[in-house]
Automatic annotation (TrEMBL):
It comes from Cercophora scortea. It catalyses: L-aspartate + 2-oxoglutarate = oxaloacetate + L-glutamate. Its EC number is 2.6.1.1. The keyword Transferase applies. Pfam families: Aminotran_1_2. This is Aspartate aminotransferase. The keyword Transferase applies. GO terms for cellular component: mitochondrion. GO terms for molecular function: L-aspartate:2-oxoglutarate aminotransferase activity; pyridoxal phosphate binding. It comes from the Eukaryota.
Amino acid sequence: MMLSSVRIASRRAAAVTGRNLVVLRAASTWANVPQGPPDVCITEAFKADKFPQKINLGVGAYRDDQGKPYVLPSVLKAESAVIAALMNKEYAGITGVPEFTKAAAILAYGADSSALDRLAITQSISGTGALRIGGAFLARFFPGAKTIYIPQPSWANHAAVFKDAGLTVEKYAYYNKDTIGLDFEGMLADINAAPNGSAFLFHACAHNPTGVDPTPDQWRQIEAAVKAKGHFSFFDMAYQGFASGDIHQDAFAVRHFVAQGHNVALAQSFAKNMGLYGERIGAFSLVCADKAEQKRVDSQVKIIVRPLYSNPPIHGARIASLILNTPALYEEWLLEVKEMADRIITMRAALKANLEKLGSKHDWSHITSQIGMFAYTGLTPEQMDQLAKEHSVYATRDGRISVAGITSENVGRLAEAIFKVKG
Ligand SMILES: Cc1ncc(COP(=O)(O)O)c(C=O)c1O
């Protein structure tokens, strides 16, 4: 008798004897699955708080000045047009909707980029999926050590994605907690200390969680160090346009590296800059040496994608594609991205101004010199606990606040709370 039949038979016997509950539990296939750690979920504590003026600075998504989720008008128009076109729901190819990936590549690398005609690109399940495909590609084909260096700190999911893809994860210095800024010397030292030909992950703009980005001049020096060591660069660009409000400025690092001859890997997300979070729309691309290499790489990307999810969803790709390929919608979208970025920048300035008005002697200049959705306040975990318990202000214990959760209405109260906790 096969093992599975033995198990079923013993369950039946147990049911007959009336001891089924106990025996079934003991025989459960998943009896030894350990409990994972709880999600770092501030939403629960936020929900439980009954104070009407509570503030949630933990969300990783844009909110308008009323604190509401925001659907971009250009997205609404594109979506209406997609629905009105009554298109069929056939599968996309393995690498997705071609009009979307072509336009995504132009958006990232620039319309005149030398990379475009030697680029292997695939649509992905947003930025996370792009990182995962890239991780799997490196795990299979990267000729150096199967290790990727990520910044310390980095987006919490980076290490998990790359480890699950089969890579070893190492950290390079990035953040200086004394200056609440970039540890530029430490970063260069770690780039120089890594074995020649290592793989490095860089946040293209709006570093998450710190909001600290290298300046263009620092990027130039980073590029020179990376080139001198023969390292490979993998860019994660989850916030193009969302950081400065200018899609070209935010793509500076990627484009500079490509112009200097680096055949980079790139993960793109349209979650933030188009507000298409739940549509899961992104792209993974690899700049290749030439057309022949591009063909070979493309074939292997397909071999990675096919057994993972066969082919990607079409709805978000159609929306993004229509925006990127329709001049009037594209112009409208650029303005909306800038509006979102500007609101964030305005809220940073307002928070700093309010803290100064209250008489804080602390230097808050990092609030406005940092960029993107997140700000590192420099508050300790204990101070963050105090913010939550005494002031109903919720954010992660590492001191990171989502500036998207700040509004014209709550910024004054937020500043008062931070002032009371930090001085
Ligand atoms: C740095 C960074 N990379 C990638 C992502 C991926 O997000 P998504 O999979 O929603 O595109 C995020 C989202 O917060 C991020 O902050």
